[in-house]
Specification:
mainly alpha; single chain; two-stranded antiparallel sheet
């Protein structure tokens, strides 16, 4: 927030914008349609998210939390600033399919927007900068840092024997990609998923470089209980399926991350303990935080 001071008024304006269907062409889809509070702001039970006119994209909606620490956004890392992030889904023809000038025209005479804009920015004039700065305040305030693991690191609780063993397994096999405390390194890598029917080329969509084929941003391991299905295309419904992928179905291609050449081999007992540890990363207090829910008016 160095160049976008967080205020309650800015947060409240961003909250209203986040849940406003008028940000889409046909007034059917808001940011909150695909980023739902109960799913850690992912799209509950959707492998690929749907946009206006029931159109279907190619990727799973990633969750929203701890965004201030991200170095890039989207599965391909195509945007590098939180204030720029909303432009993509707003303009994407299979997501919200709208333009910023049209949004401004839709909301500029709304009395509640006028009041919230004046409270946040000093006058009633809505413009693109104020829209995106307010959305960034709302999303940037979504901090998830009160899981059992967080309480353990603060000395407020202890982990069970299984959870401690799972922590050791995580440190051995997972931590270089899913680095604590955010549980992602933010690297963009090929994790051995066989290309799907969309033949999504990942980071190469942005760079047009063969060396970036099938590379996707490493997601956080936090709040996995709420964010299924998993991977950039939501192909796995359970964490057991994810672990089985790394053990048995890593697809070898020229851009495969070298750390996965031999997969990740775990015994059944190790899988059980690792899953026990991963459950300590679920932050129920974040999911239940009504500050981030859709406003009642």
């Amino acid at each position: 927030f160095e160049d976008n001071t967080l205020t309650n008024a800015g947060f409240q304006l961003g909250r209203k914008l986040f849940y406003d269907n008028r940000l889409s062409r046909d007034n059917s889809t808001s940011c909150g349609s695909c980023h739902q509070a109960g799913a850690a702001f992912a799209h509950a039970e959707h492998d690929i998210s749907h946009g206006v006119d029931g159109k279907v994209g190619t990727r799973n909606s990633p969750p929203i939390f701890n965004m201030n620490w991200h170095t890039s956004y989207f599965w391909d890392g195509g945007v590098n600033h939180l204030e720029s992030q909303p432009i993509n889904p707003i303009q994407n023809p299979v997501e919200m399919d709208e333009t910023v000038p049209n949004i401004i025209n839709k909301i500029k005479d709304d009395a509640d927007y006028k009041a919230k804009c004046k409270a946040a920015w000093g006058d009633e004039i809505m413009n693109s900068q104020r829209i995106f700065k307010s959305l960034a305040q709302f999303m940037g305030a979504m901090v998830s840092a009160n899981s059992k693991y967080d309480k353990y690191t603060r000395g407020e609780t202890t982990l069970t024997a299984a959870e401690m063993n799972g922590l050791n397994i995580y440190n051995t096999h997972c931590a270089t990609c899913h680095t604590a405390p955010l549980f992602t390194s933010f690297d963009i890598v090929n994790n051995g998923l066989k290309p799907n029917d969309f033949n999504d080329s990942g980071r190469a969509v942005i760079t047009k470089l063969a060396q970036d084929l099938y590379k996707f941003k490493i997601p956080s391991l936090r709040n996995l209980q709420y964010t299924a299905p998993y991977m950039h295309d939501g192909r796995f419904n359970t964490l057991n399926q994810v672990l089985n992928h790394y053990a048995k179905t890593v697809y070898v291609s020229p851009t495969l991350d070298a750390r996965l050449v031999n997969g990740i081999q775990l015994t059944d007992a190790e899988k059980t303990d690792l899953l026990a540890f991963l459950s300590t990363l679920n932050d129920e207090s974040f999911i239940r935080d009504t500050r981030f829910y859709e406003p009642s008016n």
